Structure formats: C-alpha cells, structure tokens
From TrEMBL, chain B:
<protein>
    <submittedName>
        <fullName>N-acyl homoserine lactonase family protein</fullName>
    </submittedName>
</protein>
Length: 147, 296
C-alpha cells in the first residue's frame, strides 16, 4: 500500500501515515457498514416482503462517508490506499443511485451485485487489522475472549 | 429406524477461552478449549449442513494471530473425512449470521440456504444505528449480507418466517426471537420420520453452546440440573431459556439429544475420532445402513 518512492520525500512519513490511519478508521468502518446496508437494499429490491426502512439511513451514511473520505489527510505514501477506499465509495454510490430509480431486470441486478462485491473486495484489500481497519469488528466478538 | 446420519465436524478451535463467556455466571471456573464446528446431516436423499463456518480468506490470518484461533481447515478437507465434497451439499440451515456460522457461503455452490427473515432484517437495522451502538454488531461480518443478496439473486436463499415443518423430510426449523441473536434458529431432526417422534435430535446453534447450558449443576436449588444460558447475547436470557425449554420438551427431557457445536466434550458422550488434521469428528447417530465415519 504505502508507496516507497513517495515516502522518501516525506521527512516524517511515519507520523503522517499514523495520522492518516487514525483518521481513516471511522471512514473505513462506515464503508463496511455501507456494504451491509447496500446489500440489504439489493435484497429488498429482490424480495419485497422484507421490511426495511433503512434506505434513507444508507444514503445519509453514504453522503457523510463521501465527505469524510474527501477530507482525509492523505500523504503520498498512502495515496493508493486512499484511492482504493474512494473506488469502493464510488461503487457503493453507484448502486445507491441506481436503486433509487426503482425496478430493474436481472442483468442490472447482477451488475449491482458485482459492484458491491467489488467494493467489498477493495475494502478487503485495504484492510489493516493491526491499525483497526478490519472488515468485521471482532473486538467484542466471542473469539476476543481468549486475549 | 433412523433416516439421517448426524456428524459434528470441528473446523477450527481456540484455546484458553473463559468458561464465563460460555456459561453465564461461571466467573470462577477454568478456561477451556472452544471448538468451532458445523453439523453434517445425511439422509432421505439430502446432504445438509447446519452452518458453514467462516472464510479463512477474509479474516483467518487476523483471527489466528489476534485471537488464537488455530487449526482452521476448509470445508473440502473437513467434509472429506465423511466422504463428502462441498459440491454435494444441497441444503444449508444458517442458525444465525455470526461470522463463524455464516461466513463461508461461497464454498457451497450447489446449496440452497435457509435463514430466518428476522435475523437479516434486524442485523441490518442495527447496522444503520449510530457508532455509539456498535456493540450490537459484534461478530457480524458485512460480507454475510452481501452473500445473502448474491444467493437471493440466483434463487438460492429461502427466508424462514418462524417455524417451518418438513423443510426437508423430517427436519423442522424453529425461531428463537431476540435470543443469542435477533433471529436465531434451531433445527429439530425427527429421525424416525414420525410427526410425534420418539427419536428427535436438536441442533441448537449457539442457543446451547455447551452441555452446561442445559445441564448445569442444580444442587444449589435442590434440583439435579438447571438451565444456564451462555453469556453472549444481544437479546434476552429469558428467551434463550424459553427456547431451551422448548428443545427439552421436544426431546422428552433427554438432554444428550441437544447438540452444542462449541462443546469440546462431545467425544465423551458420542463415538468420535480425531482426523488427520487434528480435528474432532463426532458421530451423533447413523442412518439405517450407513457406515460409521468414526469407527474403522
């Protein structure tokens, strides 16, 4: 992720990266939640019997996350990491926009599924569990008891 | 007469796990080994699983290093001990959406998945809540809902609304609302096929994680055994105990017929063996004419 050649031009790359990672944690967490929420909206569009009123909440979360992502301090060394998060955000936004337009055929639905899958893959690649960027927050999960 | 063979297949484990997290109130007790398992059900023309474990691809290395989960093996390796491949599995019952039960959907390309509608709906509601309430999402992998959407798109996801009798012949699904999770499900196998069965096995998911949840020493209150739920729940302990009572009624109060998947002592109660991969296979029962997977 951190680009070595760019890092050489930063006199304190470690500090800058630490600041970036600290600021990125909540944004990364919001992106993972968006994956779940957008997936659920897809499920809804496929099965009208599901009751869920979270569409507005998902759109609000998307807007807030997009703004927070754009405001992150991004040292050159982690440009690629930030790019991956931005790409994930872009894909999730595309799905939300398409869902607002209503019913779709199977091909369009499959395309949206691929977009969410792709966003999830980007987040998986951008995961840095040791820095708190993890797809699943397992700090309070059953397995955390062994620590 | 028995229609189904039932095997509990360990796929990973963690050691040094506090008993108090498994049995509420056991604060003074020792740490134990916690196996992670799924259950194989074969018979009446079906190969079914109760839960699918988690995907090592996504979180395995992290879990192993951070939380000491060890010896994870993929379904192909685990199932091969019973002569089964993941492609053979036609039915999967998901007891709840925690990562270690619903995290490995992709490995079963021919299976139809059954999950309680409330489980998905309520998790999704929780995900829309403010960060301050994130505790409620512990153990949830966002990929699970994505998997559900993918399965739904290809017609391989079946919603369960409460109870469902004979989902496959002799197998019933039950809802324990607001218990271990929001829509936890347990599975009852009527192994003689009778409507009022004398041969019921209950596959309890995480509503009963260890024998002690259902057979806790009750001498303190002058009973032989008492129910004692696990400590990890987002719902109500009361609802867990009510579910346990329903399970016990169904099995004629024969506690050994309620199968917990996180119990390391299954081998003391049922025939079992340790596989080449150092994972336990426990044989709960055998269908008529079936060959044992644990005895040579």
């Amino acid at each position: 992720m951190p680009d070595a050649s760019a890092a050489r031009h930063d006199p304190h790359p470690g500090d800058a990266i630490a600041r970036y990672l600290a600021a990125t944690g909540p944004v990364y967490g919001a992106l993972t939640r968006l994956v779940s929420q957008v997936s659920l909206l897809l499920l809804l569009s496929d099965d009208r019997r599901l009751s869920y009123t979270g569409a507005a909440a998902a759109r609000t979360l998307a807007q807030e996350t997009e703004t927070a992502l754009a405001a992150l301090p991004v040292p050159a060394a982690v440009g690629r990491h930030h790019w991956m998060l931005s790409q994930a955000m872009d894909r999730l936004s595309q799905v939300l926009k398409r869902l607002r337009r209503g019913r779709m055929d199977a091909a369009a639905f499959a395309r949206l599924i691929r977009l969410v899958r792709s966003a999830h893959e980007l987040l998986r690649l951008a995961a840095l569990p040791e820095a708190g960027l993890s797809l699943a927050d397992l700090r309070r999960a059953c397995c955390s008891c062994v620590r | 007469m028995a229609d189904y063979s039932i095997h509990v297949l360990e796929y990973a484990r963690t050691r040094n796990y506090p008993k108090a997290a498994l049995v509420y109130g056991a604060f003074e007790e020792v740490r134990v080994t916690l196996p992670y398992s799924y259950i194989l059900l074969r018979g009446r023309g079906h190969v079914a699983l109760v839960d699918v474990g988690y995907s090592h691809k996504d979180h395995g290395k992290y879990l192993a290093e951070k939380y000491g989960i060890e010896n994870w093996r993929p379904p192909r390796t685990v199932l091969s001990e019973c002569g089964i491949a993941p492609e053979d599995v036609d039915t999967v019952f998901i007891t709840h959406a925690h990562f270690d039960h619903f995290g490995n959907v992709e490995d079963f390309p021919n299976a139809t998945f059954y999950i309680q509608r409330e489980e998905i709906e309520r998790w999704s509601w929780v995900l829309s809540l403010p960060d301050r309430m994130r505790w409620m999402t512990a153990s949830l992998d966002p990929a699970s809902i994505l998997h559900a959407a993918e399965l739904s798109a290809v017609g391989r996801l079946k919603w369960v609304d409460g109870c469902w009798e004979d989902v496959i012949p002799g197998v019933d699904l039950h809802l324990a609302r607001d218990s271990h999770t929001y829509g936890s499900m347990w599975v009852a196998v009527r192994n003689d096929g009778a409507k009022v069965s004398q041969d019921v096995w209950v596959l309890a998911g995480d509503l009963v994680v260890q024998f002690d949840n259902i057979e806790r020493d009750g001498s303190l209150i002058d009973v032989e055994t008492m129910y004692n739920p696990g400590a990890q729940t987002v719902g109500s302990y009361t609802n867990i105990i009510i579910a346990m009572a329903a399970m016990m009624k169904l099995v004629g109060h024969e506690a050994r017929r309620i199968i917990p998947v996180h119990e390391a002592r299954l081998g003391e109660r049922f025939p079992s063996r340790i596989s080449r991969e150092d994972l336990r296979i426990s044989e709960i029962c055998l269908a008529d004419g079936a060959v044992s997977a644990v005895k040579s």
